[in-house]
Amino acid sequence: MKYAAVSLILALAASPASAGEPALSAGEAAAIDKLIDRALADDRAYEILESLTTEIGPRLGGSEAEARAREWGAAKMKAMGLKNVRIETFDMPAWSRISESAAILAPFPQPLAVTALGNSVSTPEGGVTAEVVRFETLTELKNAPLTGIEGKIVFVDEKMTRTQDGSGYGVAVAKRSEATYEAAKRGAAAAVIRSVGTDSHRNPHTGMMRIRDNEKMAPAAALSNPDADQLARALLLSRGPVVMKLDLKTATTPAAPGGNVIGEIPGRTDELIVIGGHLDSWDLGTGAIDDASGIAITLAAAKLVDEMKGKPGRTIRVVMWGAEEVGLFGASAYAEAHKGELARHALAAESDFGAGRIWSMRTKFGEASAPKAKLFAEALRRLGVGPGDNDASGGADVSPLKAAGVPVIDLNQDGTDYFDLHHTPDDTLDKVDRQALKQNVAAWAAMLYVAAETPGGFRD
Amino acid sequence: MKYAAVSLILALAASPASAGEPALSAGEAAAIDKLIDRALADDRAYEILESLTTEIGPRLGGSEAEARAREWGAAKMKAMGLKNVRIETFDMPAWSRISESAAILAPFPQPLAVTALGNSVSTPEGGVTAEVVRFETLTELKNAPLTGIEGKIVFVDEKMTRTQDGSGYGVAVAKRSEATYEAAKRGAAAAVIRSVGTDSHRNPHTGMMRIRDNEKMAPAAALSNPDADQLARALLLSRGPVVMKLDLKTATTPAAPGGNVIGEIPGRTDELIVIGGHLDSWDLGTGAIDDASGIAITLAAAKLVDEMKGKPGRTIRVVMWGAEEVGLFGASAYAEAHKGELARHALAAESDFGAGRIWSMRTKFGEASAPKAKLFAEALRRLGVGPGDNDASGGADVSPLKAAGVPVIDLNQDGTDYFDLHHTPDDTLDKVDRQALKQNVAAWAAMLYVAAETPGGFRD
Question: What are the residue numbers of the active site of A?
């Protein structure tokens, strides 16, 4: 399905399955097969992943560590032979964690494992010591009267459901975004939530709250799931009030340096396929699954396409987005910096859901182009990837592009265990399954081939 | 097999399987069956476990929290109707953790998850900053020259093998005990070890080193397994030295209050069966598997025997040993305080290997009594417990009794996952399988019945 040589009409005519539907030619199918073979035998994604997580480690958006990660990324792209490698910088507000601790003081004194939520303000000097008031869910808190819990510590104990597609997150994450505001509205001294996570380890899950507004926020933190269990039990077993101390110190720099790292595999036309992952991670772990894996998968897949005979039909642009976790600053900066060339963006996709095997795909193409999803499904079938609807989300860093009309594709990873690790100290290299990582690279390489070579694009 | 009514000779004569070997009578087997039925339907062990881990939480030997645990234990025993409930106090040296941190400073700056090992001295004010020298195993360190690593940080990277019977621990724990001395001998500034544990979480495993001797020790700490991986990779990937900072603050009080909590189910004779677990835990977690489970299992099992018709043949003494983790202070104090009555101790056993299902048993009886192990095996068969040899260890707190000639029995728990949690923050209530806990209680209750009723004891 080379861009210039084979037209869609030829491909349609050649379809053996059902006339009138797009299909890969035998030559194209063979090329993809070979590409997948090479990907499944290639360990470069793991090498990239190991290098980023070891040589940089944690890399919070806007930090000095993220700046080192950008240098690492540009050097890695150059070493791998990508062209037009550059760092596109921007300024951003940078939140950071200084210290955090929590304890039950009465009636059962003991420490609790806690972590400040991103954008949290500090507690007053010496911390907050107050009675705990538990809410089973965020909804219960929202429905609570506006008086009666002044000066207390709100505890939102809502649990998260384990799902393969990550849909449990969308439900559970609301408490992380909003508990701070609901607590402050009621004059509470602080908010603690049960971690947005599915594990049972003493590793609390951090994550961003809604836009910072100091006037309307209570200091907010997450307890690990076992600690949330413990606090809930203490409330149940105590005959009197449970008093907790929470001590958070955080800081914000209004304008810290941020940046996206960009490199390209030049194609035969100036149309662009934009792929990538985000370079930043939370500060607690080394961001192996979130999102060094996405960086590694997309870069390795692009390189495999680069090593095919001839240039790809469209240019493949690999982006390492900066500062995703802390507010999509890299995504916004990219969309702004490249708004003049968005019409040339034929397709965009992000890998940002760990390194579990890809099990399904979705597209968001124009109506007339929607049937071309079949070409991708055909290319990915051997890898156990099932077809999906034309309702792809595109990934967080791709959302501004999608909003501007750029077609997107999702290669959906198995996220059953993703929220055991997400945003915790436990997001480290040992959690990545090396074989599943290769399957990801193979799927991205096959997707890239179809994306680069399919005539006519995906907008119409 | 009631003590007074049925003699061993009768039991032997009644054996349907093989004449000359001990066997349970039909009545005894029926009584044990009923006891097991009741145990499998009883949730009191879980209630005890929940109460201790929630209402006390971490309870390091010699701490104020352990003192609260003793009050909790005595109150619990009284509430459950045990007799002669008392706390036998003693003095002990108490080590404690004040603060701990570690980081790679160069060439890949990032924090490391670390915990001080029990008995570690503090690092000098401001911590130790030095190059890391890695040793694959403790043996490699022991074989290393006595010069050449002065002022450096020794890193013993030895891995632990996962086993069902815990035998991997005996091999791996040597580095925890000895690395500090081997490092100090060579003038090293500090020692860090890969955690003695089989998990892959950012929770380092603490644990005791050999007797404290400040003059001959280097400050010593354990890295979590992912952090040990990371340090090993940094050493591999770096072209120059890897520089690490280790900052430990610890303290020791020469004479802190300690104690054992003791209660009894009085029997028809003054012979004693001593069972129990240890009341103290490490400070990092709430000691659910180590060893609130042992406390809960043995107390619940004794209570189930207490609820049978009539008194048991022998008195069942339940001991909550103090300060096991930090040097077996409770075990020594018990043996010393009770040395005048050790001849009356017919059998001793400790539950201290978590809450996994019991899968085998072992005895250490006198030669002539060894065949009586068959009675226990017969009683436990229904629970899936296999028979074993006459080479039981008896458990750490029972070791002084065993050394003094008291027969012991081991009910061996499945420890396949035990060292994922052992001595870490992750040793919390949620890790206990409620059904496996009941199986433990049933096995201990059945064992107690046979132990209390078998005539002639187990010494000969």
Answer: 324
Alpha helices, DSSP H, located in A317-369: 329-337
A230 touches chain B (CB under 8 A): yes
Here the CATH number for the domain that contains residue B156 is: 3.50.30.30
- Chain B residues lying within 8 Å of A110, measured CB to CB: 56-58, 65, 286
CA quadruple B52, B54, B58, B59: dihedral, nearest 10: -30
- Which residue does chain A place closest to B60, by CA atoms? A110
ipTM of the predicted structure?
Answer: 0.92
What integer pLDDT is reported at residue A220 of this predicted model? 98
Contact A229 B202 (CB under 8 A): no
- Please write the tens of the pLDDT for every residue from B3-17: 343 343 344 334 444
Give the single-character DSSP code of A427. -
Please indicate, yes or no, whether residues A209 and A277 belong to a single structural domain of this protein: no
Range of the domain at B340: 8-93+255-453
Shortest alpha-carbon distance between residue B37 and chain A (Å)? 29
Q: Is the pLDDT of residue A14 over 50?
A: no
For residues A276 and A352, membership in a common domain is answered with: yes
Place of tokens 């995906």: A458
Number of domains in chain A: 2
- A33 residue type, one letter: D
Copy the structure tokens of residue A289: 């699954």
Are residues A202 and B200, on separate chains, in Cβ contact within 8 Å? no
CB pair distance less than 8 Å for A428 and B202: yes
Q: What's the pLDDT tens digit per position in B173-203?
A: 999 999 999 999 999 999 999 999 999 999 9
Give the residue from A241, A272, A295 where a domain finishes: A241
Give residue A25's Cα distance to chain centre. Answer: 35
CATH code (residue A261): 3.40.630.10
pLDDT confidence band for B241 (50 / 70 / 90): very high
Q: Which of B202, B224, B229, B421 to mutate to test the interface with A (most CBs of A within 10 A)?
A: B202
Q: Which of residues 19-48 of A touch B (CB under 8 A)?
A: none
The answer as to whether A155 is a domain residue is yes
* pTM listed for this prediction: 0.93
A84 and A134 together in one domain: no
Asked if A292 contacts A53 with a C-beta cutoff of 8 angstroms, the reply is yes
